[in-house]
Amino acid sequence: LLTFSKINSVVEKLKELYPDVHFEIVAMSTTGDKILDTALSKIGEKSLFTKELENALEKNEVDLVVHSLKDLPTVLPEGFTIGSVLKRENPHDAVVLHPKHKGKCLQSLANKSVVGTSSLRRAAQLKKRFPHLEFKDIRGNLNTRLKKLDEKDDFSAIILAAAGLRRMGWENRISQILGPDDCMYAVGQGALAVEVRARDQDILEMVSVLNDSDTVLRCIAERAFLKHLEGGCSVPVAVYTEVKNSQLYLTGAVYSLDGSDSLKETMQTSISSDNQKVDEKVQRVSITALKVSEAPQDAAVKLGVDLGNLLLSKGAKEILTVARQLNDAQ
């Protein structure tokens, strides 16, 4: 469920840029938001978080939909596209401790302490990094998860996206930010995306001003990597990207469910472009980024595909196949 704060931040930006346009917010929840008793990896299809919203878009009941980019599959249904990717917030995961453990971190929690996470990606990395801890599934929206943590004694800590906590005004609950050495993040994590009808040039043009070029390029590379691996939320795939001196760096990794088996590699590409040509009709991993130069976008796609190929050549498919089979069997 997209919080009002996420949608409102997008609408406020659009109102500033288009003061003569009236924007009406229509709050909707999806099937995925309502299934709170099943692990995300068991739900499988990311479309459960988007289908109702896309139906409203298709029927012209709404003109644009705000999502967390990490909830959007790398291939959208025909007729839809991501018209903008906003400047990314902190994409890392955060540790939220039970109040009785205030001042501690994952490393200092007692042996066999239980940590809650709904993500196979987080669990796989953290099991390997912190073998003295136990990891159990926890579902629900942020409020529900924090309530489960604070009011019961089932969990010593839970792992949540730092960006989500910040948007809800709960930064003071963050005990520890997990850097890439501890836990790399999900594809698209920390970025908001605006989905629109692909044929709707006026709306595409309107939302394109929200695009943040570096975030667009990072997320295109991440999504191309995930798509090439045929990954999703039912397998542990993690990324880390940065832009430095006109170079885009992409680190990608795949894990077995218990984190014991993994592959991790880094590649880079130049995203400087003398040719500022913008191709307004091309979707790259379902993103139509008007006003972002064509050559760097193509380089970002190639980077994701090349890194995917490198990991596949080293045995990534076998690791992910076993992870998927084990997850299905649990």
Explain this structure to me?
- The protein contains eleven helices and eleven strands.
- It is globular, with a radius of gyration of 20 Å.
- The protein is 35% helix and 19% strand.
- α9 (213-229) runs parallel beside α10 (294-313).
- The longest helix has 20 residues, at 294-313.
- It has a five-stranded mixed β-sheet, sandwiched between helices. The protein has a three-stranded antiparallel β-sheet with strand order 1-8-2, with helices on both faces.
- With 330 residues, it is α+β, with helices and mostly antiparallel strands.
- Belongs to the HMBS family.
- Its EC number is 2.5.1.61.
Rounded mean pLDDT score: 91
Residue fraction in strands? 15-25%
Spans where pLDDT lies below 50 across 5 or more residues = 32-37
Radius of gyration: 20 Å
> Termini, distance in Å?
26 Å
Family: Belongs to the HMBS family.
Keywords: Acetylation, Cytoplasm, Phosphoprotein, Porphyrin biosynthesis, Transferase
EC number: 2.5.1.61
GO molecular function, one term: hydroxymethylbilane synthase activity
Secondary-structure topology with pairs:
Layout: H1 4-17, H2 31-34, H3 40-43, H4 51-58, E1 65-68, E2 80-85, E3 93-97, E4 114-116, H5 120-129, E5 134-136, H6 142-151, E6 157-161, H7 162-167, E7 174-178, E8 192-197, H8 201-208, H9 213-229, E9 237-244, E10 247-255, E11 262-270, H10 294-313, H11 316-329
Parallel strand pairs: 4-5, 4-6
Antiparallel strand pairs: 1-8, 2-8, 3-6, 3-7, 9-10, 10-11
Helix pairs in contact: 9-10
Keywords: Acetylation, Cytoplasm, Phosphoprotein, Porphyrin biosynthesis, Transferase
Domain Porphobilinogen deaminase C-terminal: 217-275
Subcellular location: Cytoplasm, Cytosol
